[in-house]
Amino acid sequence: MLGKALDLATPTLREIAREAGVSYHAMRLYRAQQRTPAPQVLARIVKALRAQSADLAKVANELERAAERPSK
Question: Which of 4, 6, 25, 37 has the most crowded CB, counting CB atoms within 10 A?
Fold first, then answer.
């Protein structure tokens, strides 16, 4: 579970690009502010980032519950 949390904590640019349906090269250009994404592309990137945040929040809650349980 902790490994999953750590994986989710730092999504790579490639992972966000894949989830948003954008090429890695385009994401690098957006990140460097050398290109501006079209509104619909930006919306997909935001959705991918929110999904990553939601997944991380779920795992963090699971870890908190696990930490509160008495160890055997």
Answer: 37
pTM for this entry: 0.70
Q: What is the mean pLDDT of residues 18-25?
A: 93
Domain of residue 31 covers 2-68
Nearest alpha-carbon partner for 45 in 18, 12, 66: 18
Domain count, the chain: 1
- The string of pLDDT tens digits covering residues 42-61 is 999 888 888 888 877 888 88
